Amino acid sequence: MAMAMSDSGASRLRQQLESGGFEARLYVKQLSQQSDGDRDLQEHRQRIQALAEETAQNLKRNVYQNYRQFIETAREISYLESEMYQLSHLLTEQKSSLESIPLTLLPAAAAAGAAAASGGEEGVGGAGGRDHLRGQAGFFSTPGGASRDGSGPGEEGKQRTLTTLLEKVEGCRHLLETPGQYLVYNGDLVEYDADHMAQLQRVHGFLMNDCLLVATWLPQRRGMYRYNALYSLDGLAVVNVKDNPPMKDMFKLLMFPESRIFQAENAKIKREWLEVLEDTKRALSEKRRREQEEAAAPRGPPQVTSKATNPFEDDEEEEPAVPEVEEEKVDLSMEWIQELPEDLDVCIAQRDFEGAVDLLDKLNHYLEDKPSPPPVKELRAKVEERVRQLTEVLVFELSPDRSLRGGPKATRRAVSQLIRLGQCTKACELFLRNRAAAVHTAIRQLRIEGATLLYIHKLCHVFFTSLLETAREFEIDFAGTDSGCYSAFVVWARSAMGMFVDAFSKQVFDSKESLSTAAECVKVAKEHCQQLGDIGLDLTFIIHALLVKDIQGALHSYKEIIIEATKHRNSEEMWRRMNLMTPEALGKLKEEMKSCGVSNFEQYTGDDCWVNLSYTVVAFTKQTMGFLEEALKLYFPELHMVLLESLVEIILVAVQHVDYSLRCEQDPEKKAFIRQNASFLYETVLPVVEKRFEEGVGKPAKQLQDLRNASRLIRVNPESTTSVV
């Protein structure tokens, strides 16, 4: 019975939660009102949790069922796709068979007619056999087997063989559009990872007379492949990999910006791959060289028209014919020039940036002051492509995505090669961007310690050391370059200083540290900034400009604290002498006043431990002098008026209170005591403030002189009993 009630309750709860107008807030409110106590809420919570777990299990079960159905559907689609490819392959073979019938019968018929006329049968078999052999050119055709004009039956046979073979490779129909292209060699290979030497996949290589196609196996469709990559032989370098059991029969292909390692079935096939690749590359290079020589060959001189052909031409007006200057030829047949594109590819693949730039400098020096016929333009076009690839690699070396370890010296190699390539501006930009990322990372990795001053010491050390190292490395790398790079460095230094000030202000000013702590932190930052003067870099004005708002805010905030504390003490002022109770306390007060600059404090001390001054005036003196000392540590010219106005506001609060009390007090003894405190303020405290301000700033302040010279700063109505502050 209880089980039935529980099931019905769970069913009602599920229906309630699944209803369209369910509102969680209203439901919880009603549940809290209807429950008798904590036990009911706990039981209801358990029911909801059980329902949630049941729902999660149902959801997992549905997902699993859907996943199984998806796998079955995918398997059916794969089977159907395999059958479609098989059907397409059969249709292609039938089409090829039908197309080959006229090509084999027509020569035979012609030969048969000739044999009937001569009475012999040998011509039929010979002609048919030769054409059949031409039509069935195999996978191991050599470049020399193709006729040069590409119009003979042998060329048609090679093209037909290539067409039939490549129809088994998905996604390579564009290869058939290249005229004069034929298959040289093909075979199965196994690809290995270049870094870890782990087996990756089975592939099939198709070597054409001008490129290499790599296709991957399709396990579900036997004899079919999928296009993987196509590499031009001009930019391909072949490297023999030394056998290191169990890794053997391997060779490496280098093509910017990657390299791939393949394993042949045995040593013989590996040797065949290496030989046929080199032979094909050599044949292609020789073909290109012949084309360049033919293009550079001088044309015959134009025919000169005889004078007799124009009887009306006056001999006197005839101008002498200007002989046509024959275009100077440039010798590009040297081996190092022929192999230059491939050598550049190898240098780029092996990260030999200096070697690549040396080759480019050698070529530029050789072609300097030489004409630019079509072969030279073609060579320059190939070289420019390699220069672009080399530039991309060097740019990647300097990108912030690379490891930032090693400091600025780690970028010297890439920067120097970019400068040699004439990319000075780009090298400067990338170098500074790399260093900005390094500085930002170093600042972010700093641990925020409990003590603010300790963190600021670490922050300044990390930032200014990085800035100093960057400046020195910049001076080494870009010495003798355009002066615009140095302007870019100054702009970057200002941006980096902004990054530093953000971290500095967040820790010092945003956390509402005391003015003394802020002053010490700013002092540390200034000292580190002055170290940059050793290399002729002065950024002090930048750090002043970036910190001025935060320091103004700190001065204003601390000024308000002092004013508020002074007003609070003024409200409780009883105008009584101070009794310090012990000689030690009196001696400590004398030392404090002496450190504040009040040297004649002895004349205000009385018998025993009495001081002939009010507690309010003494506290105000210590607080004001402390504020002045800390503010002078923060001082720079942009803060002159802010500091001066803050001092005037603080002093006004004290002198207004003394003036008001002197006007309102009726007791003669207290009135005399107030005059003594006023005399201390005007004749002792204000001169000390004025003198210390002038020492710290370097010039006197007229506003403070006016305060000291005035007998009263604010005239209060004698009949009034309120103070105007």
Automatic annotation (TrEMBL):
Primary location: other
Swiss-Prot/TrEMBL keywords: Cell projection, Cytoplasm, Exocytosis, Protein transport, Transport
A matching Pfam family: Exo84_C
PROSITE patterns: PH_DOMAIN (PS50003)
GO molecular function annotations of the record: phosphatidylinositol binding; small GTPase binding
Domain (PH) ranges: 182-282
Official protein name in the record: Exocyst complex component 8
The gene coding this protein: EXOC8
